[in-house]
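quick one, 655 residues, struct below
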Amino acid sequence: MLRIKKLDIFITKQFGLLFIGTFFICQFVLMMQFLWRYVDELIGKGLSLEVMAQFFWYMGLMLMPQAFPLAILLSSLIAFGNLGESSELTAIKAAGISLLQAMRSLIVIVVIISGISFYFQEVIGPKSFISFRQLLMSMQQKNPEVEIPEGIFYDGISGSNIYVQKKNMETGMLYGIMIYRMNGGYEDAAVILADSGRMQTTEEKKHLLLTLYSGEWFENMRSQDVAGSANVPYRRETFSHKRIVLDFDGDFNMADADWIAGDARSKGMGKILHDLDSIREFNDSVGHQFYFEAKHTGFYIPAISKADSVKALAAVKKDSINFDSLYSKLPPDAKQRVMKAAVNEAQIASSDLSFKADYSEALNHNDLLHMIEAINKVTVSLSCLIFFFIGAPLGAIIRKGGLGVPVIISVLVFIVYYILENTGMRMARDNIWTVWFGKMLGTCVLTPIAVFFTYKANNDSVVFNIDLYKQAVFKMLGLRSKRHVSMKEVIIEDPVYMADSYHLLRISQEIEQYSTEHQLLRLPNPIKVFFRPGDDQTIRRISEELEEVIEDLSNTKDSGILTYLNRYPFVAIHAHTRPFRQKWLNVITGLFLPLGVFFYLRMCRFRLRLRKDLATISHTNELIVQRIAEKHPGTPATLEELQKMPFIIDLINNK
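---
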């Protein structure tokens, strides 16, 4: 039985309030970004508030499914970031409740939001798209408000260009008017000049009434010219007062929406799948028809076997026709007619093939758009779940609330998703990638990321530990940090200097024997490196024993010894013998020659570095042993003297 706990109600309230706020913010940002695409076509049209309200309403309904994922990502980041920052998430985990158990109420809510997103895309989205496109086309076709600027030609009135030298904004008078009218084309162009005038819109807003004062009318009447006449009809008129009526429809009329019904975005999932069968059947019939036409033209060359080709070649030799000789016997005028006919046939064939190619590409493009839209309805709904399982675990890991870090992370994640989604969509639309691969690219990339963050947050694993990643990079590149041993303020137990001297001298002796036996300057055998297991136990033992001595000597108050301790390098115990610890990785690296050469040279570099490190360790051991002998009289400085002391073995064992 499903029980709603107080914790579920508490987390739901935290998330719900943030989701409502972030949703309206994301919706506003997306609407403004969408509006900028059409702002140049809408400005200056004199549209009423009712029309603009419908425009924004339909736009908002279309963009709601895209605002859901971003709002979920941001609100979940802030909600769980606030819980982590106020230590409430720590208290929840201390009570034995895992992160996934704390998220269960929000998972149900996000699944419901995903269903709402799919419903919007399936039912409300297509209707909103049809209404939006119809309204947008009507707004684009509406003539702009007549606002004639000064000093430039205005072409906002169909068939006319108007130039005004100066305007009086208070009286509405225009001065220095020049009008070019081309209602009958360039052959019947008219030029009207006037000292002043006034422009008004008729009551039905279908025409413009232009009243002109003190001007001239020049009109070319070439269209009325009699064929073969040398004189061109021309008319000139001088007037003191004249009225001109210009066609101008300033009213708002809804455009026809029938052409929008074929767009894939105006259909639901069921309609798209149903129409896809019809579209593909029609495309196949067109392809078969084009193939039939090509088969029965000169472009079709039937495939013949080798035996048939030999018979055809023999027949040609017996009764061959030399077309070049026939062409050379024709008279010049006949040759010209033959060449023109051949060129004409080639041009017709080229145009026919080009038209068929464009038509086939358009049919295939329509098929791709329907598939893209069908998959998009699913991926957008799934992105709500994916973004939640990215945002909530990230908020629990980062433990930062507010609008600072969460907003930055949300923007970065959304930019990555937006780039992948749009790149895949464009590649699929252009038929460069398959539709499934292009449209599922963003989902397939972000899903493993969501699973990774959820797993890490649920297990309280370290994800954003910079030192951990820095150490991994250093290890990969063969870099290492320097040793930092400083004097301790409180020392519980002093170092056992005599035992430490004994160990350092023993280490120096083992280093000398190791260098003599292994000869690190010699190149290793590649077969042993990549295809045979092996670890350098001697270097491992030397490194472990040296670290124990350094740890014991770090309790000293002698600054000189501490200075010498910082000279010890961190020794890589296996990088000079093989690239990786796993045998199968070494085998694969050795078989892949370029990679194998790289790691082989890298291993040689580690062998040279080990040789240098061993020399540094031996020299530092000698300095520290001498320092101990100087500061602590009675402590021998050689291994032979230390071994002769009766209590040295007991001292080492006690240590």
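The two ends are 62 Å apart (CA to CA).
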